[in-house]
Amino acid sequence: MSYRGRMAALGTRHAKERVIAPAFAERLGLAVQAPAGIDTDALGTFTGETPRAGSMRDAARAKARLGMEAAGLPIGMASEGSFGPHPFMPFIASGREMMLLIDDARGLEIVEECVSERTNFAALDLTEGADVGAFLGRAGFPSHALVLRRGGRITKGINDRAALESLLSAGRGEGQLETDMRAHVNPTRMAEIGKLAARLAARIATACPACAAPGFGTVRSEAGLPCAACETPTALVRSLVAGCALCGYEKRSPRTDGRMAASPAECPECNP
Question: Which tens digit of pLDDT belongs to each residue from 142-185?
Fold first, then answer.
């Protein structure tokens, strides 16, 4: 199962190796290299010039394959992100990150993902009276870069105040400012990718109880936490299912927070 002394190709053009490589070297002894010259933007961009085809997993897989082909390695990795309203708290922005490792020698594809509220994802319409200063503060400018959309043109990677003021003065009262969500110009996102890399490395280090393949971990959650008053199943998570990417073995376990019942306020029968 060991990856110690092996090498994996990382499909990225946005310097993600800065946070991914240390996590895998420390936990698995797996060296990670990012081949030069691959164009992951051809698979989709946050600013929409190139739409992403397929799911996040499809995109991450394609990025990993680009890196593997460029490096001539049987092991590849990549990550993919998306940003928008939080799935459970729609008035809060969130980021969803996914990372996968492909091991062609073992016939494995191991995936880990997370949703986090730690994001500066935001946009501002440059209408008359728009509070640009407040937006810059929320966005973390200039350590976090911005994107300006104006007149069909998209300017990315703006991280200098003089340059931003020059761009804004060139077209008053029109356009939109956005946070640049590419990892190499967004330290908040880069930090979240680093956390996810540590989680994926820990997952890969976990062997399947049935076949000993690497990558045993949570594959889904199951709803149905019973109401404490009437025992009606609710929409809350009741159990977590861990699984193997190779043999398909699964194991159910209770919620990690120890909660055994939902409150009547969360029950569709007690609080319809």
Answer: 999 999 999 889 999 999 999 999 998 886 668 999 999 999 99
Cis bond leading into 142, ω under 30°? yes
Local structure of 230: helix, strand or coil:
coil
What is the dihedral angle through the alpha carbons of 135, 137, 142, 148, rounded to the nearest 10 degrees?
0
State phi, psi for 112 to the nearest 5 degrees: -140, 145
Note the pTM of the prediction, 2 decimals: 0.91
Beta-carbon count within 10 A of 171 CB: 13
The closest of 188, 120, 121, 179 to 149, measured between CA atoms, is 179
Strands 153-158 and 146-150, sheet pairing: antiparallel
Contact status, residue 196 vs residue 112, Cβ threshold 8 Å? yes
As to burial, measured by CB atoms within 10 angstroms (0-12 exposed, 13-18 middle, 19+ buried), residue 59 is buried
- The amino acid at residue 39 is D
SS (H, E, C) 93-156: EEEEEEEEEEECCCCEEEEEEEEECCCCCCEEECCCCCCHHHHHHHHCCCCCCEEEEECCEEEE
Beta bridge partners of 123: 178
Cα separations (Å) of 183 from 33, 46, 205, 263, 267? 17, 11, 26, 40, 41
Residues whose CB is less than 8 angstroms from the CB of residue 29 and which lie 6 or more positions away in sequence, other chains included: 2, 3, 4, 5, 6
Residue 249 DSSP label: -
Cα-to-chain-centroid distance, residue 123:
19
N-to-C CA span, the chain: 50
Q: Over the stretch 83-109, which tens digit does the pLDDT of each residue have? A: 988 777 778 899 999 999 999 999 999
